[in-house]
Specification:
The chain has 471 residues and is α/β, with parallel strands linked by helices. The chain has a seven-stranded mixed β-sheet, sandwiched between helices. A hairpin with a 4-residue loop joins strand 2 (120-121) and strand 3 (126-127). The model has no long low-confidence stretch (mean pLDDT 94). It folds into three domains: 7-76, no CATH class; 84-94 and 355-468, Aspartate Aminotransferase, domain 1 (Alpha-Beta Complex); 102-350, Type I PLP-dependent aspartate aminotransferase-like (Major domain) (Aspartate Aminotransferase, domain 2, 3-Layer(aba) Sandwich), CATH 3.40.640.10. The longest helix is centred in the N-terminal third of the chain and has 20 residues, at 31-50. The protein has helices at residues 13-17, 20-29, 31-50, 61-76, 102-113, 135-142, 153-165, 186-192, 208-214, 241-250, 278-283, 309-317, 319-324, 328-340, 344-350, 352-357, 361-379, 420-432, 456-464; strands at 84-85, 120-121, 126-127, 146-150, 169-173, 179-180, 184-185, 196-200, 219-225, 255-260, 288-292, 303-307, 383-395, 398-413, 438-439, 441-443, 446-450. The chain is globular, with a radius of gyration of 28 Å. The structure holds pyridoxal-5'-phosphate. The site of pyridoxal-5'-phosphate (PLP) has 15 residues, from helix 7 and strand 10. Pyridoxal-5'-phosphate (PLP) binds at residues 152-154, 157, 180, 184, 225-226, 228, 258, 260-261, 292, 303, 397.
């Protein structure tokens, strides 16, 4: 039984602040944060003393200083931190989606550090338009007449609808009234954009004549939403983009496609499942196409709208464009990412999102082998670690039914039966508490770390912190 001490043994704040070690901390971390840390530590000790659980020695100078240091370190730690995404979902929305290529990071750092020509035409020496920084690249890569960029694809859809369909009707297939992760629901966006939704067809089948029958004088636009995050299988029908474009144009209406992910290259060349491209939609006659910057494109969070000059010009003039515009960091990184697409042969090497998605299985296997011994040592008697088959997902709503063959490190608690669930939770938590948190997933009685996203250059950093794992 430990000897406990009374409330009176807890020193006053001023006394602790005067400990030489604590004074040194105040010099390093600042006086106010140190005061807050001391108060926090002493409050906790008083509470323990009141409960009779304050062990003798807890109020020693060195112990107190160590606790103050721990509190200061905790408070100084950034809230937004890097993690290891070993969930198996490569473009994980909760974990920041696409990692950016080094080229893009370098460009972002440059424009963050000093002024840039964000809205300044260097050739003419006059005010410029920030969209002109990426428009020529988007024209070249997609074949579109014009392009504009906003905060994300949800904003792109919202802005286009608000510009073209305010107080009028937008026709959409019932099979495409989708919800995409959390708060993006097509009917809700439509209502907030001030458009009236006219649903046509049924969940599984919508025909061209359903659209045709719904067109009236109040119709503003025909919209097609790519059903990114689910697949309807079996008895299905949907009108082709070329047919919808033809129908819209015959009535003098624009046709818009929300592609969601939208990649600029044919993923089939790397053995990945095909995903529609803006080029295809534009070639099929779409007047506007919107897609995300940080899904398959592999860039920063952004919403890209490409299409007819006259419609893009209208969108740019909408006062809400100002509210939804993106900053120089996004333009810098987006430009750098788009530039990589000019050289498709090297894209899979240079663009991290694509590099991870096309990573050879042998390479993933080798990474798993490389970290297995360190992981086994770190888990010791608490869990058994082995390499197991896994299936990675692309994520961010792309290609929901297609999974990529991968390998995971399966960490199975040695505790079986009643304690097993608790042990699994404890393992998951211990990995989350590492200096660079490791995020995996629990499946089939093991905590699983899909190694696809742990590249050769990350292995050292990953292994180095395993010594701090507290299972
Ligand atoms: C992901 C997605 C969106 C939303 O895009 P964000 O860039 O996340 O705002 C909209 N529509 C579709 C079809 C999507 O897949």
């Amino acid at each position: 039984m430990l000897q406990s001490v009374s409330l009176a043994a807890v020193p006053a704040v001023d006394r602790v602040l005067n400990f030489p070690a604590v004074r040194a901390l105040a010099g390093e971390y600042g006086r106010k944060p140190t005061l807050a840390a001391v108060r926090g530590v002493l409050d906790r000790l008083r509470e323990q003393a009141r409960g009779g659980g304050l062990a003798a020695g807890s109020t020693d100078e060195s112990r107190l200083a160590a606790q103050v240091l721990a509190a200061l370190e905790q408070a100084a730690r950034p809230r937004l931190r890097p993690v290891f995404n070993l969930t198996g979902t490569v473009l994980h929305t909760n974990l920041g989606r696409a990692p950016l290529p080094e080229e893009a990071i370098a460009r972002a750092v440059e424009v963050m550090r000093q002024p840039s020509n964000l809205e300044y035409d260097l050739a003419g020496g006059a005010r410029g338009d920030r969209d002109s920084l990426v428009e020529p690249l988007l024209q070249e890569l997609t074949g579109a007449e014009a392009a504009t960029v906003v905060n994300n694809n949800a904003a792109a859809v919202f802005l286009a609808l608000n510009t073209l369909g305010l107080r009028r009707e937008v026709i959409v297939s019932r099979g495409e009234l989708v919800e995409i992760g959390g708060a993006f629901r097509v009917p809700d966006i439509m209502a907030r954009a001030g458009c009236r939704l006219k649903e046509v067809g049924t969940t599984n089948r919508t025909h061209l004549h359903d659209f045709e029958d719904a067109i009236t004088a109040k119709t503003a636009l025909l919209l097609k939403v790519h059903a990114s995050n689910y697949a309807i299988q079996g008895f299905t029908a949907a009108a082709a983009e070329s047919e919808l474009a033809g129908l819209a144009h015959a009535h003098g209406l624009p046709f818009m496609v929300d592609l969601g992910s939208g990649t600029l290259v044919d993923l089939g060349q790397w053995g990945l499942p095909q995903e529609p491209t803006p080029q295809q939609s534009l070639a099929a006659g779409a007047d506007l196409v919107s897609f995300s910057g940080d899904k398959l494109l592999g860039g920063p969070q952004a919403g890209i709208i490409v299409g007819r000059q006259e419609l893009v010009a209208k969108i740019r003039k909408n006062p809400l464009k100002r509210a939804l515009r993106v900053d120089k960091i996004v333009y810098a990184t987006l430009e750098a990412v788009l530039r990589l697409y000019r050289d498709p042969e090297r894209l899979a090497q240079r663009l991290p999102a694509l590099r991870l998605l096309t990573r050879p299985l042998a390479d993933i296997e080798a990474a798993a082998q490389a970290i297995l011994p360190a992981l086994q040592t770190a888990c010791e008697d608490k869990a058994e670690v082995s390499i197991a088959p896994a299936r990675s997902q692309i994520g961010s709503g792309s290609l929901p039914v297609d999974l990529l063959e991968s390998r995971c490190l399966a960490i199975a608690p040695r505790a079986k039966g009643r304690g097993e669930g608790t042990a699994l939770k404890a393992i998951e938590q211990a990995f989350r508490e590492l200096p660079t948190p490791v995020i995996g997933r629990v499946a089939d009685a093991a905590f699983r770390l899909d190694v696809r996203c742990l590249e050769a250059g990350d292995i050292g950093r990953f292994a180095a912190q395993l010594g701090q794992l507290r299972l």
